[in-house]
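Worked problem 6 (solution included).
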Amino acid sequence: MSVINSRKVAIVGCGFVGSASAFALMESGLFSEMVLIDVSREKAEGEALDISHGLPFAKPMNIYAGDYSDISDAAIIVVTAGAGQKPGETRLDLVKKNVGIFKSIIPEIVRYNTEGILLIVANPVDILTYTAAKLSGFPENRVFGSGTVLDTARLKYLLGEHLGVDSRSVHAFIIGEHGDSEIAAWSSANVSGIPLNSFCEMRGHFQHQSSMNAIAENVKNSAYEIINRKGATYYGIAMSVKRICEAIVRDEKSILPVSCIQHDNYGINNVALSMPAIVGKNGVEAAVPIELSGQEALALRSSADTLKTVIDDIF
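Solution. The predicted structure is:
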């Protein structure tokens, strides 16, 4: 087994999400080596060439198409491979197709690399994170999904727009399933430490409940809106992948709502969903308990039940 190279990333799947993620990671300067793997070697080669041509404007990096043997020393393996979500299709509709694909991909990864971090990005991300954890046998801290990192970014963006404030000053999480049963954790939301409702009133907004409902609904439907207009979503998730990789490579101990298998968190067990967690060089280092209202906790358990039903169908 090769010694892990902390500056090497592998991307499995070179569709819209994989190639956009590769581009975001090239621009980030986080890695010195990136291997792209796809069922179509030609596609991987084309993406590697295209992205490499931007290197004179970025930082030196070796970007190339390869096969699974090339991932033996990769610190992070980003898995975006899978069928894409089609217009009118829910993320959960994708389950059977993509679990089948993972049953061929994950054993190949494990054959060559048992020390890296598996970052699952393909949808439905919670089910596939659980699948990857079970198929790989990796410690759970090293198998997690992009989860609701993107949904949370969408929430922060919309709140920033609504309040006329930098979205980076908004602290709020989307938790649960990355999908239709996701929950906006309003009770712990704040803007630079100021409770959300107080900040809203400061900015002249008083219809709290209707605004919260509209924004949460907007976040939940964002992907469908984008898919209906342009066929796929990939830039937002690519930036989310970059953000998670930053936290790992720089050992930032950042708190991100990634998808991982829960153990007695709000009474939820043996299901992967998103809750805030400390992310660093060892992957998910600790769960971060956040205050939830009774209603939010109930909705979270209901989200877990939705996912559990799907998992029980598969395993």
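Discussion: The chain has a mean pLDDT of 94.
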